[in-house]
Specification:
The structure is a single chain. The protein is mainly alpha-helical. The protein has one domain (about 35-65, about 75-300). The protein contains 15 helices and no strands. It is globular, with a radius of gyration of 20 Å. The N and C termini lie far apart (about 45 Å). Pfam families: EamA. It comes from Chelatococcus daeguensis. This is EamA family transporter. InterPro entries: EamA_dom, EmrE-like.
């Protein structure tokens, strides 16, 4: 059975949803640095990233459902369970990529997620992908290559790590589609909490099997993990789940490219790293691509009848 596009795609995006999407990109864009600063291995940091966020997400879920004053949604729906599984795969390969290749390489290959969202929407879900989304994706891909391409270091010893980055993009792409599906019937807080619970359970087993130690070794290490959990996961994934209740996944996935833009901006503002003309142009291409792909409100009957000025 074919699945048609959600009605979200036919309405102009709300400023609140767009703002949540931008804030999610900002929060998620800091995760590579925090993973590198953690004093535990990649699988342990992936587990703590999700586990330490659960109390905040639980409080948010309780507040959201009390505020709505409605009966709670059916727990652990299919979309939520799939989102938890896909995000576990995403974090598994993302943290491996960060530790086995350069941050620039890991970020570049992980930003291919929108490409897999579009392909899955078209080939698996049989959705028609709008032309502006495809054009916007092309601009974002070109911009991402320009922004990060100069820092890429393709070498034989990093090919495995680069492959982990591509696997990250595949899992994150399917995560977008699963969250979008779950949000049709379930609130953002419950989707984020329940999917995170599944992800944490999977990553706990992985960490026990793969890591020599799981607990942070210092107060600094604990602080890094708390920042990773509260800011990058609770903030980033929670805002993303909220936005996906109002915006189509094909458009929302383009936010991944903004992680590279924010990373470059932070490097310029905080670390004094100069931005080249090519990198600046790449950032502008990404912004232009996202603007092109934005959902637009349908023209009214009156607008369609207006004469075209000569």
């Amino acid at each position: 059975m074919s699945i048609t596009s959600s009605s979200k795609a036919t309405h102009a995006p709300s400023p609140l949803a767009l703002g949540a999407l931008l804030a999610a990109a900002l929060a998620m864009g800091l995760s590579p640095v925090l993973v590198r600063l953690a004093d535990v291995g990649p699988f342990a940091s992936a587990f703590w990233r999700v586990a330490l966020a659960l109390p905040i997400l639980w409080v948010w879920m309780q507040a959201e459902e009390r505020g709505r004053g409605t009966a709670r949604s059916r727990p652990f729906g299919r979309g939520t369970v799939l989102a938890g599984l896909f995000f576990a795969g995403d974090l598994f390969f993302w943290h491996l990529a960060i530790m086995n290749t350069t941050i620039a390489n890991a970020t570049f290959f992980a930003t291919m997620a929108p490409l897999f969202v579009v392909l899955a929407s078209w080939l698996v879900l049989r959705r028609r992908v709008a032309g502006p989304v495809l054009i916007g994706l092309a601009f974002c891909l070109a911009g991402g290559a320009a922004l990060i391409g100069q820092s890429l270091d393709i070498a034989p010893q990093r090919l495995v790590g680069d492959g982990f980055g591509i696997a990250t993009a595949v899992f994150f792409g399917f995560y977008f589609l699963a969250i979008e599906h779950a949000r049709k019937t379930t609130g953002a807080a419950r989707v984020t909490f329940e999917s995170s619970l599944i992800t944490a359970a999977i990553l706990l087993v992985v960490a026990f099997v793969m890591e020599p130690h799981i607990l942070p070794r210092s107060s600094w290490g604990l602080a890094v993990l708390v920042a990773l959990a509260w800011f990058s996961h609770a903030g980033g994934q929670g805002l993303l789940a909220f936005a996906l209740g109002h915006l189509p996944a094909t458009f929302s996935s383009l936010v991944i490219f903004l992680e590279a833009v924010f990373a470059a901006a932070f490097g310029w503002l905080i670390a004094g790293e100069a931005l080249t003309l090519v990198q600046t142009a790449g950032g502008l291409l990404i912004l232009f691509g996202i603007w092109l792909a934005r959902p637009k409100a349908p023209r009214t009957a009156v607008e369609r009848q207006l004469p075209v000025p000569h």
